Amino acid sequence: MFLNKIQRFERIEPLKLFEQKIKHQAPNTKQQTTNHKQQNLPTILAIESSCDETSAAVCRDGVILSNLIATQKVHEQYGGVVPELASRAHMQNIVPVVDVAIKNAGISLSDISAIAFTQSPGLIGSLLVGGQFAKSMALALNVPLISVHHMQAHVLANLIDEPRPDFPFLCLTVSGGHTQIVLCESPLKMKVIGETIDDAAGEAFDKTAKMLGLPYPGGPLVDKYAKLGDASRFKFPEPQIQGLDFSFSGLKTAILYFLNNAGTSNVFKEDFAVSAEERQLFIDNNLNDICASVQNRIVSILLNKLLKASKETGIKNICIAGGVSANSGLRNSFIEMGDKFKWNTFIPKFEYCTDNAAMIAITAYYKFLAGEFAGLSVTPSARAEWS
Ligand code: KG4
Ligand code: ZN
Questions:
Q1: What is the C-alpha radius of gyration for the chain, rounded to an integer number of angstroms?
Q2: What is the pLDDT of residues 39-90, one digit of tens each?
Q3: Judging by DSSP bridges, how do beta strands 317-321 and 344-346 pair with one another?
Q4: Which of 152, 174, 175 has the most ligand 1 atoms within 8 A of CB, as the residue to mutate?
Q5: Residues 18 and 88: beta-carbon distance below 8 Å
Q6: Which ligand minimizes its atom distance to the CA of 329?
Q7: Which residue in 93, 219, 281, 302 has a CA-CA distance of 20 to 30 Å to 242?
Q8: pTM
């Protein structure tokens, strides 16, 4: 009975693997593989499974040799990530993803010096799949285990390629679950000096997209339509939050009322409420301008706080990171602000902005050098402070 069930267990969806073109191509001759082993260069296999991407990467002596990502399309129909489906998809994807990452790096199992994995924060079921796989592999290969904090890894994505920021630097880390300004003194010494008190920037994008009837994840679609729109057409409020913290929930409510009033007001006034048909017509006729105006406000909220952080700390080496740093409006405005205030600005390559194992590998590399290993008793955690 049980066996039958297993035999009938089908893939949730066909596995689609994405691999970036790696600048430092992996050596694929046996000779080179032997050489690096003789030189004893740390070679780390890293696994990222905190949300809905199953990713594996290989890094040798701080150089990324492969970075494979399997995205999970199964969530699209639900308008958001379904945790149980994410865990199941990770279980199905993890073996082929790791296998291809190792092959594409041109290494063999015996070359691996350590196994790294995302320990927190994230969806607990998803983290458990990556964590258990990493532990089993470390045990089987008799190599150390390295646990990595996902948000720390987003920051260190800025150290993957040249040009790399000098320390200390500030990093605006903007993802689906977090919005933080991080002061980074060394690869393993960082402090969060500002963060959101409610929604994250990625959530603001995704929730806006949902209100506009766009599919999940909506951030990239808002970005796409915003490129065609007039950002000054509609005005959305900027929250007045003390210090370096952020808030996006007021903006979300303003957008909801704005749409329900077909653009006549950002505040709730029953007199202005329009029918569902009128609301849809308003969206259809103004989609590009709405996306551009909302994006413009999200970007200005983020960058105004980053400017404040730079003024308060005197730090001018400034990075952005996380899924929302893939946003073209944020990238452009960040560069413009950097030129204006004479910052040294850094943005990870597009594929290192959204969730990926290369950033886990680079963080693990610095932990390896510092001798920061985890015991096999380490457990994933949905929420966690900086490690
Ligand atoms: O860092 P990430 O890949 O995963 C988390 O750790 O959360 O970030 C995902 C978030 C989602 O909210 C997604 O909509 C947003 O990043 N995102 C974007 C863009 N690309 C991804 N938001 C705006 N514009 C984009 N181009
Ligand atoms: Zn992330």
A1: 22
A2: 589 999 999 999 989 999 999 999 999 999 998 888 888 878 889 999 999 9
A3: parallel
A4: 175
A5: no
A6: 1
A7: 219
A8: 0.89
User: CB-hemisphere CA count at 13 Å for 265?
Assistant: 9
Ligand sitting nearest the alpha carbon of 326: 1
- Residue 229, ligand 1, Cβ within 6 A: no
Picking from 238, 240, 299, 294, the residue whose alpha carbon sits closest to that of residue 263 is: 294
**Would you state the pLDDT for residue 77?**
80
326 CA → ligand 1 middle, Å: 7
Tell me which DSSP letter residue 382 carries: S
Report whether residue 329 contacts ligand 1, using a CB cutoff of 6 Å. Answer: no
Give the mean pLDDT of 19-46: 58
Instruction: Say yes or no to pLDDT of 110 above 90.
Output: yes
Using 50, 70 and 90 to split pLDDT, how confident is the model at 8? very low
331-382 tens-digit pLDDT: 999 999 999 999 999 999 999 999 999 999 999 999 999 999 999 999 999 9
Q: Hey, whose CA ends up nearest to atom 8 of ligand 1?
A: 323
Phi, psi of 46 (to 5 degrees): -120, 145
Is residue 19 within 8 A of residue 104, CB to CB? The reply is yes
Kindly state if the Cβ of 225 falls inside 6 Å of ligand 1.
no
Mutate-to-test residue for ligand 1 from 324, 332, 383, highest number of ligand atoms within 8 A of CB: 324
User: What is the distance in A from the centroid of ligand 2 to the CA of 348?
Assistant: 13
Give φ, ψ of 184 to 5 degrees.
-110, 110
